[in-house]
Amino acid sequence: MKINMWMIANRLSALEPELHIPEDAPADLLSARRAYATQCAYVYQRGKDVICNGGEKGGYIVFRDMACDQIFEMVQFTFDFYREWQEMLIEATEQMDYRKMVDQSWTVFHNPIMLLDASINALAMSEQYGEDDVNYDWQYLSRLGHSAVSVMQFLMEEGKRHEYYMNGSARIYYFSNPEINGRQLSVTIYYHGKACGRMNVVEKDRILNPGDVFVANYLVKYLAMVLGRLNEQSISERVLLPGFTKMMLNHPVTSSEIRAWKEYVRWSEGDCIRVSALKFADPDPDIHDIVSICNLLQCNIRHCIAVQVENTIAFSFKEFPEEVDGILGVVRDLIGRFGLKAGVSLPVDHIEKLYLYYRQALAAIDYGMLYSPGAEMFTFYDYAIEYMLEARSEEEVICACHPEIVRMWVSGEPGGGEKVDTLRAWLDHERSLLHTANALFLHRNTLVYRLRKILDSMDADMNDAYTRNYIKISIRALRLNALREKRG
Questions:
Q1: Distance, CA of 18 to chain centre
Q2: For the chain, how far is it from start to end, CA to CA, in angstroms?
């Protein structure tokens, strides 16, 4: 294993050496020598001091008032130490033992390490620290096994400016927050382009530096293989995907994961949440493009979560009426920049059925490309009838019904009540007041008054033939479902 001068300095930090190392010192050293040699740390005496030189690009370290023999032996031992660490990582990877990797890497970082899955649940934490030894976040993870909502919300707002949630390479961050105050190294763990976890190293016992960044990226390569394989083989205690991704794929999710999703987007009953899908022209998109797009979405759209789902990007957002144009502007910019197609679902009705709304967003793209191949952005509303005709399940049909009819149905009497009956009769009779009044045994003025109240409460253009057909089909679908449920 090749190392750099920062890694040597970190191993010998107890000697309080004087560092003259560039931030970007390369990891190209294979061993220590008493005479100059390429790719070797050159250790020599200079007066009372000892110099450990890593070459023109690697920089050098000064050990004051030390003997050369002693320093040379310690530097050479540092190379042996990292080789043994590498061998441990290889062995732990074969054993699928990520806990061993975390615990035995403490001697590399000399700081608390936490390994989280993609839903911010704790997988492993350095055993050298008790629950009260680090910070509030560490304490919360130790006691409850997952990050506090307040921490996640802080990172969503503050960390997103620095690509915290989607960073594919280790970086050192400084956060000014009572719960995670201070510096920490963090990196998202990817396996075959999919996020499957995160590793954090909290600065506590030794100052973090570029050497820690290098070894963190090295360690994460092995952690990614373990977490990725566990995920694929389904032999882990839980699928190591983000909760939002699992919801899109209709995988089992815990109540805490659903609660975390709601907290992320600050969702509450009555809010308008939509799911959108972004589809690449290339069936095997570049991971860097995926990371960039997810970051741009989360940074520019309020209360947004964006994740990779298979070969597409899924994101959910709370739809504020005054921000719709801004959201569409962000999406159009991404479409133009990355050559994407975008689909948007109906408003989400049941959080537990989020995957059905993701399917709607994908279906909007598929139908849209059939009818309007030159277009780039598609709304499911425009293709809901086609979707309902080809739906694979009754559940898909019900979730695809016109939002206004669904709202009227669930808020009214059983079977939709008087409002739905009136609207259905009016549409069945081609909006004829005379024929509708006769069918409902109502006076014309009573019908006009009732219809005006119904239509004024709806966000639907009844002069549009597609909308009228969509509403008629939705009413029939809901009535059929209600009759089947009644029959049992």
A1: 41
A2: 67
Q: Which residues have CB under 8 Å from 432's CB, separation 6+?
A: none
- Enclosing domain of residue 473: 403-487
Q: Do 211 and 123 have their domain in common?
A: yes
Q: What tokens were used for 310?
A: 């298979």
Q: Given its phi and psi angles, is residue 39 left (phi above 0), alpha (psi -120 to 50 degrees) or beta?
A: left
Phi, psi (deg, nearest 5) at residue 191: -135, 120
pLDDT at residue 236 is higher than 50: no
pLDDT at 413: 66
Do residues 374 and 272 share a domain?
yes
pLDDT at res. 166 = 64
* Predicted structure pTM score: 0.68
Asked if residue 58 and residue 71 are part of one domain, the reply reads: yes
User: Which pLDDT score is estimated for 234?
Assistant: 52
Q: Please state, in angstroms and rounded to a whole number, the distance separating the CA atoms of residues 367 and 204.
A: 55
- Determine the Cα–Cα distance for residues 321 and 96; give it in Å rounded to an integer: 48
Domain total of the chain: 4
What span, in angstroms and rounded, lies between the C-alpha atoms of 194 and 310? 8
Classify residue 446: in a domain, yes or no: yes
**What are the E-state strand segments in 90-244?**
113-117, 122-125, 171-175, 182-191, 194-202
Place of tokens 């989607």: 166
- Look up the CATH number of the domain holding residue 443: 1.10.10.2840
Q: Is residue 240 part of a domain?
A: no
How far is residue 385's CA from residue 471's CA, in Å, rounded to a whole number? 10
Same domain as 203, residue 163:
yes
Minimal CA–CA distance to 255: which of 263, 304, 345, 297? 263
Q: Which of 2, 5, 8 is nearest to 22 (CA)?
A: 5
